[in-house]
Input
Amino acid sequence: MELDPLLLSRLQFAFVVAFHAIFPIFTIGLATYLALLNGLFFKTGNPAWKRLAEFWAKVFAVVFGMGVVSGIVMSFQFGTNWSNFSQASANFLGPMLSYEVITAFFLEAGFLGVLLFGRDKVPPGAHLFAALMVALGTFISSFWILSANSWMHTPQGTELIDGTFHVTSWWAAIFNPSFPYRLGHMLLASFITGGFVVAGVSAWYLLIGRDQLANRKALSMSLWLLLVLTPAQAVLGDFHGLNTLEHQPTKVAAMEGNWETQSGAPLLLFALPDRDIQGNHFEIAIPKMASLILTHSFDGEVPGLKEVPRDEQPPVWITFWSFRIMVALGFLMIAVAFYGLWLRRDERLYRHRVYLQTLRLMSITPFIAALAGWFVTETGRAPWLVYGVMTHAEGLTPSLTGGMALFTLIGYMAVYAVVFYAGVFYLTRVVRGGMLDNEREPDEQVERPMRPFSATHIPFDTERQGG
Amino acid sequence: MESFDLSLIWAVIIAFGIIMYVLMDGFDLGLGILFPFAPSEQDRDVMMNTVAPVWDGNETWLVLGGAGLLGAFPLVYSVLLPALYIGVFLMLTGLIFRGIAFEFRFKSHSRRWWSRAFAGGSMVATFAQGAVVGAYIQGFETEGMVYTGGAFDWLTPFSVLTGFGMMAGFALLGATWLILKTEGDLQAWAYRIAPKLLIGVLVVFGVVSLWTPFVDPSVWDRWFSNIQLIWILPVLALACAFLIYSGVKRHHDVLPFLATLGMFIFTYLGLLVSRWPYVVPPDYTLWDAASAPESQLFLLVGTVIVIPVILGYTGWSYWVFRGKVKPGEGYH
Output
């Protein structure tokens, strides 16, 4: 069998980005939560906020550290596997990615240490300021990365001259048409992820009866947050979808599994799309619903995949099903958030064991939903790397062979498996150690700065007898 | 607009970024290479503690260099990375293992595997970086600004030699760093191994210097067409080598490290002079490789603000953690 460097490179990029992405999805929301907790403690002086802030700072430190390690690979991926794309788009993407590095470094290097280690060494206001700056750093980082990514979906402000993009308007290129929706959708996803992880961990602590006071506060707070954010995400997702319909109709057609351009298009609940027959098997559909959702009219016209030649159609199966997984999980999250509101009557929220167990299990769903959403938008763009302008095949490194791509794909998978295993294993220990780990560290001789992991003092393994 | 040459400014910034990375990650990679040979497990703890507060910042220069290169000289980025595909992969996996081992070794009671991962990752990453330098001196096969060679063109006897040379060089940096930062038995050990590593570095330095002019005729012309001021660079590098030797003999704490830094800087400048102004040898100059002027300018604005901040911050970190690291005293 001939190894296809294009397919393998796409798999490799999807794998590396997906692996890296789970860390920022979490840390962006968590950074804001830390800022909020520190703000509440600053304002009220209630020690429960401080205990929560200190515990979640440890989790933040480990996840952040993992994100940094896995992120090193990212900045080299464009060059190794997509060198033609790198060279063509460097005038725009180069400055975007560089600004991500230097602006994020600027805030993180300066304030992460103060946030993690500075509580007793700087005035409370300065510590709160550091927490706010770290949160701001994560936003700025998302800003640049999503601007670069959005530009690949809806390129504007650039002109292609002799195979190279030249920026004609930085403003138009950075604030390209899909950018505000994409950024908003992603930031909300991050907050929801943070909310469900905090809710899940707090629920688990309540189940085992640990630190009731602080964890009830944390659970209550995250559920109020989710009550607002999960429906808001559905609304924002709808806007994002309308924007996509305007600029990338083929992607929407793939999401809907819709082959013929038609008015009054049905909403497919289940189908097996098949590119070979240019149609679906086993459709279960609600008539006219797709038109209603997409055009806000029962008879609105919805584009079909057949509008474009077969070789310009996305791999519809992945797009279609990823989209359904994302939406289904989204509704599940909304339902869980609203059921929590129901349970708030007469304080049952904190004692309802089935609900607390459910919350525990739900901590993983925002990660899956976010990755599914990312698959929708990225596979839906195929075969375009820069929508309508450059295909994946054109962007590929010309000298790349299938063997090389396969070798490094397996290599990265092996390396990340070790990293992920160690990281999750250690995080589990940190969460188990939890807020019981109360004794203050002996005030070390060090003033500043240290590695993020230094924020936790929990051993990786248990000490062996006689070892 | 044309009153100053943006590409030239960027060449200086990138060249500066690269040497900063080499010098700063160099000594902590060197510690990883020396790791298996350290006298005791306690010494290994001390070795890690000497770099614990700063090594994260050291690696920032690598990410900065990668992103900056894409922004300012995309051709370099898009030819070198495909050409060095396997080498870059080895370097990245080495750095990842090393980074993870660094974090978790401090958290573990059973440290053996983390120590191995730290040492192995450091060795692989260093060898790959040295081989990249060798491959760079050799030049790259391109056609129409695209790399056309094979996956293993970079791996030649010459690049293997530079790979081992880099390992010896970083180990020497690590050893002289230990002389600077430690005392007692560990320092005595560092004093003992430093001269041996220096001999290894000088042997490779000599062979590479004699070999390089034959790798490419343009390098021969640069050095031998008429005797120029550039000959001061190898002379200064050798003078630094002598200072390392005499510093070690006189048991001077600071001199060997500074002189090793100096040796690296002059060797690096010598390498730049050999290739100037070609950034993708043998065909493309830095002006061929540059991105559009408006992109270079857009990026320059942020960079000139942030680089001094990073330098100041880095300098401050080293200042805060100045002085000897004693056993049992940790930042972890």
